[in-house]
Amino acid sequence: MATVLGMVTGIGGGMVRDVLLAEIPIVLRADLYAVAALAAAAIVVIGHVLQLPIGPVVAAALTTCFLLRVMAITRGWRLPVAKAARRPDPGSQEE
Question: What is the reported pTM?
Answer without folding.
Answer: 0.64
